[in-house]
Amino acid sequence: MNEVTVIRLLGSVILVHRTADGKLCAGDGNPCTCPGHWRQMNMIKDSGKALAALLLMNATSYTNTYIAVGTGPATQSFVASSSKLNAELTTGGFARVLATTAKRITTTSDDTIRWTTTFTARTNGTTSVTEEGIFHASAANAGYCIVAQTFTAVAMATGDTLDITHDLQFS
To answer: Could you give the CA distance from residue 60 to residue 130 in angstroms, rounded to a whole number?
Structure first.
């Protein structure tokens, strides 16, 4: 008897917002019980599925991954076929950042990829970050979008930091 194995991709993102002096922010409308923290499931993009297939074929030119943030409508959901954020930020400390990557165990050995980075606001005034995504290219609005998520606005003042931890589990 032949068995069929189905591979699912499950993505989640954790955001941590701190003020310039390192204190956790409260009152950003986040759904978690801990001030300054968010955790949400995200959408796996069609281009992310295509990139996973390329990586399984050992296409090493697609291995660098960058995290981008944007200011698109927090209420707007992504469609799987889109390959970019709604309104990607490119200045003020919010340009794409090469993420630190690591393997981790969720259910079985090395079944999860974890990307982490920190953005530091370098703007005058406040920037409301409402979306983030993982890309294989460093240039804004370019490359495969692996996963993306919108969320309630994070009001970033000058010197504030936003830690992003993004997990993608193969299950």
So the answer is: 31
Question: Token pair for residue 42?
Answer: 């995200």
Residue 146 to residue 53: CA distance in whole angstroms: 12
Residue among 170, 169, 162 at smallest CA distance from 15: 162
Q: Are 96 and 67 in contact (CB under 8 A)?
A: yes
pTM for the model stands at 0.74
The Cα–Cα gap between 74 and 152 comes to 6
CB atoms near residue 138 (< 10 Å): 15
Cβ atoms of 145 and 96 closer than 8 Å? no
| Per-residue confidence in pLDDT tens, the chain, 171 aa | 555 555 666 677 778 888 888 887 765 444 444 455 566 666 666 766 666 666 654 555 556 689 999 998 766 666 666 778 889 999 999 999 999 888 777 777 777 788 899 999 998 888 999 999 888 888 988 887 878 888 888 889 999 999 998 887 776
